[in-house]
Amino acid sequence: VHCPVDILKILHVSRPKLWLFFTDIHSLLQTAMRGFHSTLPFFFVTTFSDALRNPNPNAIQVCTQKNCRKRGSQALVETFRDLIPPGMDSSVQVRTGGCVTKCGVGPNIAISAGKSYAEYSSVADPTTASAILEIALEMETPPSILVSVLEMARASKAQSRDERLSILAAVVENLTPPEDGSGPGPSHALASALATLAEIHLMRSPPDVVAALSDARSACAACGDHRRALRTLARAEEAAGNFAEAVDAIRRWSETGDSPGDMGTKSEIRRIAGLAA
């Protein structure tokens, strides 16, 4: 055993044959981790019988309560969606969830796959999220997508706008499918990079509405249910004076969320409709 991920693999293989409670696993991990360097990511894993807990088959729930949100769990929702291999997004649902009572070691996630259920803590980076996908759901993130997601994380910390634009442009080029149709198709990660580019264009003074519209529309074409892309498209369409298109994007955005048709969406539609009147 060379790293915490190896421990998780052992538990994953053993799960169908063993009845493991949290205290047993916690003790096992605490013992195994004594030899690891303190900077390595640390996971608490809990596995229960389906009779105890099974929120939803093939579902990833990311806690977005106060403590986990402070540690970046909201962005982790999009990270998991980015890392799911193209064509497999319909086989697993990624959504926000409630507290899993491990607030001191967040961000926390819960994964249900068939009859199994597991909780992971301190999920703070794309590499860790990718390893969890492979272990818990047997989904291997393509290397090009993992590298691109890591690059997007680097772009978010870039000091200058030009540096961010340069990194994101390279990500888009890397993820854009070849014209001959070879290789994987459009991905959620590509839509994320394009949506971020559109957001940057909208933040310019004055906003570059034409560029923002182009990137936001391309993002939604790459992934039609990408929440941030749809919200950014609505902003770009509104900035361009295309109010009907902005309302349509808001409606589509609402349909992809956990609470479709909520009051916030309705008030936003009324606001934009008022601008068009």
Task: Write a structural description.
By secondary structure, the chain is α+β, with helices and mostly antiparallel strands. Helix content is 54%, strand content 8%. It contains 12 helices and 5 strands. It has helices at 4-14, 22-33, 66-70, 73-83, 126-137, 143-156, 161-175, 188-203, 209-222, 227-239, 243-255, 263-276, and strands at residues 46-48, 59-63, 93-97, 109-113, 116-120. It has a 5-stranded mixed sheet. A hairpin with a 2-residue loop joins strand 4 and strand 5 (116-120). Helix 8 runs antiparallel to helix 9 and helix 11 runs antiparallel to helix 12 (263-276). The chain is globular. Mean pLDDT is 80; it is low at 1-6 and 9-56.
For the largest beta-sheet, the strand count, sense and barrel status come to: 5 strands, mixed
Helix content: 40-55%
Cα Rg: 20 Å
Structural class: alpha+beta
Total strands: the figure is 5
Mean pLDDT equals: 80
Q: Give helix and strand order, one letter per element, not per position.
A: HHEEHHEEEHHHHHHHH
Spatial order of the strands forming the largest sheet: 1-5-4-2-3
The first-to-last residue Cα distance is 66 Å
Helix count, DSSP H or I runs of 4 or more residues: 12
- Would you identify the regions where 5 or more consecutive residues have pLDDT less than 50? 1-6, 9-56
Proportion of residues in extended strands: 5-15%
Give the overall silhouette.
globular
What is this structure's SSE topology?
Layout: H1 4-14, H2 22-33, E1 46-48, E2 59-63, H3 66-70, H4 73-83, E3 93-97, E4 109-113, E5 116-120, H5 126-137, H6 143-156, H7 161-175, H8 188-203, H9 209-222, H10 227-239, H11 243-255, H12 263-276
Parallel strand pairs: 2-3
Antiparallel strand pairs: 1-5, 2-4, 4-5
Helix pairs in contact: 1-5, 4-5, 4-8, 6-7, 7-8, 8-9, 8-10, 9-10, 10-11, 11-12
